[in-house]
Amino acid sequence: MKNIAAFFLFLVSLVSAQIMATDQESILTELRLKYYSAVEESDSVKALEKMVTELSKSNKLHSDEILTAYRGGIMALKAKHAFWPFSKLNYLNESMEILDSVISKVPDNLEIRFMRYSILHYVPDFLGWGDEKEADASKIYVLLMAKEYEGLPDEIITGITQFMLDSDRLSPLQEAELESEILLTLGR
Fold this sequence. Notes:
Elements: H1 2-40, H2 44-58, H3 64-81, H4 85-105, H5 110-120, H6 130-145, H7 154-166, H8 172-183
Helix pairs in contact: 1-2, 2-3, 3-4, 3-5, 5-6, 7-8
């Protein structure tokens, strides 16, 4: 009887873990979709900010680093959509402070590195983040080639890889390796 009870508890914990993992994935998917929507639509930034605040309070997402990174991303989106140059620069500075602090904690997180890189890609080097941009491009390449995706869906890996190829910041050899090792592997 003890074995049956132990087995039952094991099954319940296994199912609970799977439900939590699925819940985490759906939360991350929704968060990513809202973020990408907010890149083009300034009205979507508030909804994204509300979601991040609610997730922080509820502890439904078990990654403080991801939530903090998205907070940094929100500041970058506010910079993009702001009208006044001074406001744009203030939001951008705040965004970079947040993202720098997260990257110092989890330097090998592909999603967070890409978030900062995709922001800095559009920022002129004279504003002072050229070194970070180059470091991110290099690290993203290394992480992609090592297949350190940290559970990211294939479509995100494909999108990151395509962005890196389109950014023209990699050598021709690196571009060829990414195309053959990542895009062909993922069936694109």
